[in-house]
Amino acid sequence: QVQLVESGGGLVQAGDSLRLSCAASGRTFSSYAMGWFRQAPGKERELVAAITSPGGTVYAASVKGRFGISRDNAKLTVYLQMNRLKPEDTAVYFCAADRDSSGQYRDPTTYDYWGQGTQVTVSS
């Protein structure tokens, strides 16, 4: 069993930056694909960014060039650096782990483990 704990959310103004962290338990973390998803009220959960075990990355078109995903396998942690935040980035952000690294990064049903979420609110 893998446990994921997100941190780093908060209330910021448009144009500000935040870095989210996701701390994982489990010795096999380095072999998992990891994803950051977000869900705004009344909307479906959507992929923000994903990172493969070797470090390949995938981004949603809406955040490409503003957000960066990275991982530190020694610290069992994946990060989401969010720059130039916009009000439409407001959502609960979730960290997720895909133990099979299936490659279906945008499909939330692919992921086996989820964190509890952290709120990000961007005011205009």
Per-chain topology:
Elements (H helix, E strand, L loop, with lengths): L3 E4 L2 E4 L4 E7 L8 E7 L6 E6 L5 E3 L7 E6 L4 E6 L8 E8 L14 E2 L3 E6 L1
What report would you give on this structure?
With 124 residues, the chain is mainly beta. Helices cover 0% and strands 48% of the residues. It is built from no helices and eleven strands. It has strands at residues 4-7, 10-13, 18-24, 33-39, 46-51, 57-59, 67-72, 77-82, 91-98, 113-114, 118-123. Strands 2, 4, 5, 6, 9, 10 and 11 form a seven-stranded mixed β-sheet that branches. A four-stranded antiparallel β-sheet has the order 1-3-8-7, with no helix packed on it. Strand 7 (67-72) and strand 8 form a beta hairpin.
Which features does this protein show?
124 residues; mainly beta; 7-stranded mixed sheet; 4-stranded antiparallel sheet; 11 strands; 48% strand; globular
